[in-house]
Amino acid sequence: MNYVNAPLVAAERGSRSGRSGDARSRDFTNLVRVEIRANGDQIRVAGTIIGNDNHHWLVSALGFELEMQLAPLMVFFRYDDVPGVIGRVGTLFGEAGVNIANMAVSRTRRGGKALMALSLDTEPPAELVEAVRAQGFDDARVISLGAGSGA
Known about the structure:
Layout: H1 6-12, E1 32-38, E2 41-50, E3 55-61, E4 64-69, E5 73-80, H2 85-95, E6 100-107, E7 113-120, H3 126-133, E8 139-144
Antiparallel strand pairs: 1-2, 2-3, 3-4, 5-7, 5-8, 6-7
């Protein structure tokens, strides 16, 4: 999808799209923001394209700013920003035989809420995601963008 066909793709899916511009964009020349509202929930993400090879990057997700290349398989965890969380997640994924290909971490403020985004080589078993969620995470989401994601 691009800014030319976004209105058509959105309409086909029962959604709306709009375009706005701001000559004062502080960080990115090209930025796409997506907001989804369903069942009273609202999810926002933003991305951009970086480099001569047009790599797709996620720069904002679930209220956090981050910089991570999009991948076909990603996991997002929201949690309290306390020591040891990253190590626990790495250990759980390692013990389950799931390789973490890339990671980005962001937080609202020191000791506040944090977001961990992982790209994975293989689909994590549902019991792994539940085991991580049981460690006190606010949220755990597995997102599969598929092979056609351009990532």
